Amino acid sequence: MLTLQNLTKTFGDKTAVHKVSFTVDRPMMIGIIGRSGAGKSTVLRMLNRLSDASSGSILFEGKDITRLKGAERRSWQSRCAMIFQQFNLVPRMDVVSNVLHGTLNRRSTLATMFNLYPDGDIHKAIEILDRLGIAEQAPKRAEALSGGQQQRVAIARALMQDPAIILADEPIASLDPMNAQIVMQALRRIHEEDGRMVIANLHTLDTARRYCDRVIGMRDGRVVFDGAPEMLTTDAAREIYGADTDFSEAATSTEIETLDRPEVHSPEVFAEAYA
Ligand SMILES: Nc1ncnc2c1ncn2[C@@H]1O[C@H](COP(=O)(O)OP(=O)(O)OP(=O)(O)O)[C@@H](O)[C@H]1O
Which GO terms describe its molecular function (predicted)? Predict the structure, then answer.
């Protein structure tokens, strides 16, 4: 359903992404890992059409995304929602209005100017917040929430768009381990329950192993690993991170020891994490 073919991005002399190709034939949760500057964000930005590819193509359900313009490009951007490390909420605006911003693409300018939202959208926003365990935060200003809660608001805003794909660019890089776990569980659950594809750029190996069905490793703009988490051996990690034999996985870890991968998928543990 999603195919990247020789996707390339250059900035002047610098090739940030070099002929990246992979196919995703069913909705899955994919982690893209690699050191800083490997090209992970640039790949996501091209996928969402925030940035244009220099060459190569992206096909989704047979359609060439790289060629979309105007309204078609905006429509793609709402099918392919993006979440950022810094949440990108409007800090002084209440939580529910931030979530309702996810409907901007389909609202008239006048309705947007006067903050007029249909009742159905407001109910939907609250339902989504409830699903993410933060409905009681709905009237508060976004800036009053913890980082983990703010990232869940950003996920709720993305869900308002009813996207086929959620792209998450370092979604947990600003969070402490407990909040990082809650946010990763939320993304995993959205993938499993809704059948949405999730592609997340991640700094740490253990997070990719624990939550993802497939891991893509990038180094210097190229894909150097593409496989199941079980295939991600220390040697494969060394290749991705360009490290020598001193390489220690602990250096890329945000581990907190309480959860194993099988438990992560259990709704009970998910609910408990929110309690
Ligand atoms: N707008 C830009 N102009 C010039 N160079 C850029 C631009 N955006 C990215 N780059 C360069 O492209 C390369 C890949 O950057 P990118 O942000 O995609 O890497 P990354 O793997 O996401 O790293 P990080 O984890 O630090 O965000 C880097 O060398 C970066 O400096």
Answer: ABC-type phosphonate transporter activity; ATP binding; ATP hydrolysis activity
Question: Could you tell me the pTM of the whole model?
Answer: 0.87
**What does the pLDDT average to over 172-176?**
94
Complex-level ipTM:
0.95
Task: Note the pLDDT tens digit of each residue in 136-150.
Answer: 999 999 999 999 999
Residue type, 60: F
CA distance 173 to 41: 13
Six-digit token string for 107: 């609202």
How many other CB atoms are found less than 10 A from the CB of residue 257? 6
Mean pLDDT value across the chain: 87
Q: What is the pLDDT of residues 33-46, one digit of tens each?
A: 999 999 999 999 99
Q: What one-character-per-residue DSSP string does 12-73 give? A: TTEEEEEEEEEEE-S--EEEEE-STTSSHHHHHHHHTTSS--SEEEEEETTEEGGG--HHHH
Ligand 1 cavity residues, CB under 6 Å: 11, 14, 16, 34, 36-42
| Torsion angle in degrees (nearest 10) through CA of 264, 148, 47, 21 | -40
Q: Output DSSP code: residue 9.
A: E
Q: What is the 236 CA–ligand 1 centroid distance (Å)?
A: 23
Half-sphere exposure of 118 (CA within 13 A, CB side): 9
Is domain 2-274 classified as CATH 3.40.50.300? yes
* Ligand 1 atom closest to the CA of 39, numbered from 1: 18
